[in-house]
C-alpha cells in the first residue's frame, strides 16, 4: 500500500530511541522528510546517522531540545517553523509511590508529557488549518484509561493528552487537518527496560520476575500477554500520519495488546 507520505514533513519528539525512533524510521521508509529530537545534540546526531544507515536515501535531520525547557521549545520552533506531521512522542515515566511524588515532579511530568504537545500545537496547528492539511498525533497510553497505581502522575498526563487531542480535533471541522491519539500498551522500548529494572528494585525481585509479575498482576487484562514491539506501535502511527487516514479524526486509537476491555 502506498501511504502517500512522500515529501510530507514530520517532526517526532523524543525519537533518539524507543517508540519515537521506530516511528521516525517507518515515516522515512515511506518517503517522508523527518526531523528527529532528543535532549542532547550528540545523541541526536548518532540517531540521525543510524537512521541514514537503516533507510536508504533517508531525508532526516535532528534538533536537540529538552521539552522540560520552554526556551528550548521556542528555539526548536524557530528552527523548524513549518511541519505537516508533528508527532508528540516525548514522554517520561517512572514508578513512584503516590505519597513520594513531590509538587516539582507532578509539574515536570505535566510539562514534558502534556505541555510539550500543547506548545508545538499552538504554533503548528493554525498553520495546518491555513494550508488545509496536517496531522497532529499524540502518543498517549493505555495508562490514560487504566491509571497505573504505581505512577498516578504519569496516568494523569496521559489522560490530559487525550483531552487536548480531542479538543483540538473539534477545531478542525471541515478542514483536511486531523488530530488523533495513539494509545500503546506495554511496549519493549529502552525506557521500559529501565522501568522494569526500577520496578524490580522497588519490589526486591529480579528483572525476569518483575517482568513476569507485571503481566500477572499489574496488567492481567493484556490479551497478548507480552510487551509489544516498538514497530507494532509505529505502524499504526504511520498509517494515522498518512493522507489515507483522513476519515479518522478526534480518535483515541489503541495499540494496547487488548488491555482496554472495551468493545469500541
Ligand atoms: P523511551 O524512554 O524509550 O524514549 C523516550 C524518548 O523521549 C527518548 O528519545 C528520550 O530522549 C526522549 N525524551 C525524554 N525526555 C525528554 C525531554 N524532556 N525532551 C525531549 N526528549 C525527551 O520511551 P518509550 O517507551 O519509547 O516512550 C515513548 C512514548 O510512548 C512516551 O510518551 C510514553 O509515555 C509512550 N508510551 C510508552 C509505552 C511503553 O510501554 N513503552 C506505553 C504507552 C505509552
What does this structure look like?
Helix content is 46%, strand content 14%. By secondary structure, the chain is an alpha/beta fold. It has 2 domains: 9-187 and 229-247, Rossmann fold, CATH 3.40.50; 188-227. α5 links the parallel β5 (134-139) and β6. α1 crosses α8. Bound molecules: nicotinamide-adenine-dinucleotide (NAD). Residues 13-20, 37-39, 66-68, 89-93, 112, 139, 141, 184, 186-187, 189-192 line the site of nicotinamide-adenine-dinucleotide (NAD).
In short:
The chain is an alpha/beta fold and 264 residues long. The protein is built from eight helices and seven strands.
Radius of gyration: 18 Å
The distinct ligands, each listed once, are: nicotinamide-adenine-dinucleotide
Uncertain parts: none
> What structural class do you assign from the helix and strand content?
alpha/beta
According to CATH, the homologous superfamily of the largest domain is NAD(P)-binding Rossmann-like Domain
The domain tally reads 2
Helix count, DSSP H or I runs of 4 or more residues: 8
From the N-terminal CA to the C-terminal CA, the straight-line distance is 26 Å
| CATH fold-level label of the largest domain | Rossmann fold
Order of helices and strands: EHEHEHEHEHEHHHE
Gross geometry? globular
Which range best describes the helical content: under 10%, 10-25%, 25-40%, 40-55%, 55-70% or over 70%? 40-55%
Average pLDDT metric: 96
CATH architecture of the largest domain: 3-Layer(aba) Sandwich
User: How many E-type strands?
Assistant: 7
Query: How much strand?
Result: 5-15%
Major sheet details: 7 strands, parallel
Amino acid at each position: 500500500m502506498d501511504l502517500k507520505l512522500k515529501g510530507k514533513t514530520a517532526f517526532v519528539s523524543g525519537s533518539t530511541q524507543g517508540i519515537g525512533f521506530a516511528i521516525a524510521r517507518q515515516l522515512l521508509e515511506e518517503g517522508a522528510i523527518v526531523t528527529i529530537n532528543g535532549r542532547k545534540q550528540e545523541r541526536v546526531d548518532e540517531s540521525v546517522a543510524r537512521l541514514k544507515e537503516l533507510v536508504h536515501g533517508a531525508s532526516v535531520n535532528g534538533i536537540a531540545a529538552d521539552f522540560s525547557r520552554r526556551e528550548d521549545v521556542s528555539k526548536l520552533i524557530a528552527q523548524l517553523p513549518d511541519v505537516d506531521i508533528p508527532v508528540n512522542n516525548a514522554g517520561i515515566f517512572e514508578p513512584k509511590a503516590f505519597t513520594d511524588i513531590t509538587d516539582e515532579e507532578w509539574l515536570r511530568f505535566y510539562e514534558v508529557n502534556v505541555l510539550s504537545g500543547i506548545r508545538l500545537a499552538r504554533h503548528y496547528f493554525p498553520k495546518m488549518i491555513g494550508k488545509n492539511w496536517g496531522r497532529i498525533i499524540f502518543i498517549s497510553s493505555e495508562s490514560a484509561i487504566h491509571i497505573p497505581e504505581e505512577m498516578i502522575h504519569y496516568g494523569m498526563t496521559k489522560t490530559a493528552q487525550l483531552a487536548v487531542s480531542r479538543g483540538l480535533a473539534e477545531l478542525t471541522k471541515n478542514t483536511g487537518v486531523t488530530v488523533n491519539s495513539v494509545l500503546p500498551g506495554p511496549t519493549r522500548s529502552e525506557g521500559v527496560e529501565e522501568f522494569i529494572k526500577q520496578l524490580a528494585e522497588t519490589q526486591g525481585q529480579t528483572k525476569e520476575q518483575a517482568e513476569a509479575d507485571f503481566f500477572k498482576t499489574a496488567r492481567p487484562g493484556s490479551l497478548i500477554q507480552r510487551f509489544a514491539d516498538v514497530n507494532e506501535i509505529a505502524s499504526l502511527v504511520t498509517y494515522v500520519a498518512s493522507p489515507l487516514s483522513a476519515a479518522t479524526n478526534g480518535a483515541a486509537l489503541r495499540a494496547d495488546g487488548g488491555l482496554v476491555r472495551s468493545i469500541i
